[in-house]
Amino acid sequence: MKSGYGLLVLRYLAALVMFVLFMPPPLAHAASNPIEIREWQIQWIPTEEVSNTAPSTTGLWLNNSAGNPLTVLPEGKRGMWVHLTIPPTSTWQRPGLLADRLYGHEVYIYQENQLIYESKRDFAFDLNKFMVQLSPSPNPTNLYIQIISISERAGLLSGIRIDDFNDISDRFVIKDLPDLFLGFSIVFLALIMFICSGYLHRRQRSSWISLCLIALSLGSLVILYSPLPYIYFEDYGVIMLLLFDMSLFLLIPSFNYYIDQMFEGQFAFFTKFRHLQAGYSAFCVIALFIYTANKQNYEVYYFFLNVIMSALILLQFLFIIILSIVVALRGNKNAVILSVGIILFILSGTFDLIFYYLSHKTYVLYLWKFGIIILIASLVIILARRISNDYTKIVTYSKELEFYNHRLQRTEKMKIISDLAASVAHEVRNPLQVTRGFLQLLATNPIENNKQYFALAINELDRASDIITDFLTFAKPEIEAVTLLDLAVEMKKIEAMMTPLVSIQGGVLLLTTQDKLFFYGNPSKLKQAFINIIKNSIEAIREDGMIKLEASSEAGEVIVRIIDNGEGMNEDEIVKLGVPFFSTKSKGTGLGLMVTFRIIEAMKGTIEFRSNKAVGTEVIIRFPQVIQDKSLPNELHI
Fold first, then answer.
1. What is the domain range of residue 459?
2. How many CB atoms sit inside 10 A of residue 631's CB?
């Protein structure tokens, strides 16, 4: 079956290439306008009648026209004769006759009493067309067309066109080429998508392949609804009809699976319905092959493969539309796109059916092809949006993972530095304390000239002890006691301390703060952290520099923003902030900012840096806000 279908596709493509690229140029002919015959006479053919000759003109003939053709066969009839008069055709070197659309399985054309055209089909597809070369004649001639059908309809749907045979040949093919190009384009797109599916993640591949099957099925339906394949490849007519039905049975479960994936399986009853319909489609495929092999029990076949399947398809579209609207109301844009695509597809098919029955079954369906284009476009857009969302999630997750890895590495480095700091500080402090004690002892009986040196030595030892105490912050960053602080009060104290330093640097310090911004923290540690950050800003600004301190509350958090217009940093430098011994200053160690990070984290806060080179830096610090309540303790021990 697969090899036959591949051969069929190749032959389609070869035929198209032959028609478009290698069609012989038209022969020269006398200039003449084409003639279209839109009125004729018909005569019904009884079921039991078999005739191989043109009928008599004296029988019962009914007038008919292209504007309102009769195509529905009365009971007991199996076809019709069509009689029309051909005007003189001597003005053309090779006159020809074309019927663009008709219903019928067997077509016989007689010019006067001579058979000039014959076509037979042994498969059920009844949409047909024909072209035939006529003999040039200076006089009008009678033309009889016998149309036999095994369905409930037969007859011409369009007027009869008479023109040069080359021009008719072009029109015979070109009129149906758009449908073939559309169908082959969709099939080609599906095959390319299927090849590309190997590059996708398994989670994305299932939706992608289901969309490939949808496009493949819809493209096959468009191709196999055209009469051209059944005319040029008449020997494969049965196979093509099988492919048409199988494309429909493949389309239904593929479409349901794609929709269920879009809904992410949140509707259990639709998932069960999808499984039920997929099973019934498999049953229909088996029944189709059984009927094709036996050609028996058509009524049973029609009931299962048309009546029940049609009801399931209507129920399927009803479910999908309702669920799409429900999901769309929740703000899902994919559901909105899907709803629009399906509704437009259903409307196109509905209008086709309305026009078909209003025209007494003479209308040829074509609006559903535009609906297919819209539906496929909506499904592709949805899939593209899903892949884009997945990519965004992956990128976001990668960034978060990188951030957490960076924090983990920084924590490990800080742990090493903390252990080193504790060891060094304790080892150095012990001899310092012993030295200080002996100096104090010697100072009790000093030589008068050496008294000032003892005092100086003791002061320097005390200063070294203070430095070591600060160094121990690395080893013990935890804050033993925190109190309820008002950020506005603390920021004003910091402003008073840092304004002179900013002025010396030639800059300005501006403070903007809301009142009653309460949170738990340690005032001395808070000052130490903020002073470290502000000192970095002072060193980064030049003349006419500006440092802004802004304090506010947002979403249950106390937020401090420290903004300067200094030198700024690039992304690589921002990432390394807080890493021991990294500094953008030539004589910096990076330990001050490391202490700042530890202090803010110990007070349950977060710190974020935003900076651009030659623009400035913004530091955003957040603390959990506390709503002041008399029942809350003013001091906590942690």
1. 399-471
2. 4
In angstroms, how far is the first alpha carbon of the chain from the final one?
Answer: 77
Q: State whether 193 and 117 are in the same domain.
A: no
pLDDT of residue 449: 59
Chain segment 156-176, per-residue pLDDT in tens = 988 899 999 988 888 888 888
- Asked if the model's pLDDT at residue 45 lies above 80, the reply is yes
Distance CA 421, CA 433 (A): 18
Question: Please, what's the b/e burial string for 265-281 (b: 16 or more CB within 10 A of its CB; e: otherwise)?
Answer: eebeebeebbeebbebb
Q: Please say which residue of 173, 206, 229 terminates a domain.
A: 173
3-state secondary structure of 133: strand
Q: Which H helix or E strand runs over 141?
A: strand 141-148
Q: How many helices and strands in the chain, by DSSP H and E?
A: 16, 19
Sign (positive/negative) of CA torsion 626, 631, 634, 638?
negative
192 in the same domain as 121: no
Q: Where are the beta strands (DSSP E) in 382-472?
A: none
d(C-alpha 35, C-alpha 33), whole Å: 7
Specify if 148 maps to a domain. Answer: yes
Sign of CA dihedral 411, 413, 414, 415: positive
Residue 333 in contact with residue 385, Cβ under 8 Å? yes
The CATH number covering residue 516 comes to: 3.30.565.10
CA atoms within 13 A on the CB side of 68: 3
Q: Which residues contact 140 (CB under 8 A, 6 or more apart)?
A: 85, 86, 87, 88
Work out the number of other CB atoms within 10 angstroms of the CB of residue 621. Answer: 23
Residue 382 lies in a domain: no
Q: Of 483, 499, 482, 501, nearest to 491 (Cα)? A: 499
Q: Taking each helix axis from N to C terminus, what angle separates 309-329 and 333-358, rounded to the nearest 10 degrees? A: 140
Give the residue from 99, 107, 101, 104 showing the smallest Cα distance to 161: 99
Residue 485 host element (H or E): strand 481-486
Per-residue pLDDT at 25: 42
Nearest to 612 by CA among 574, 562, 584: 574
Same domain, 266 and 157: no
Residue 597 included in any domain: yes
Q: How far apart are CA 504 and CA 452, in angstroms?
A: 34
Predicted confidence (pLDDT) per residue in 104-124, tens digit: 999 999 988 889 999 998 888
Same domain, 97 and 137: yes
Question: What is the CATH classification number for the domain harbouring 161?
Answer: 2.60.120.260
Domain count, the chain: 4
211 shares a domain with 118: no
Last residue of a domain, one of 173, 201, 226: 173
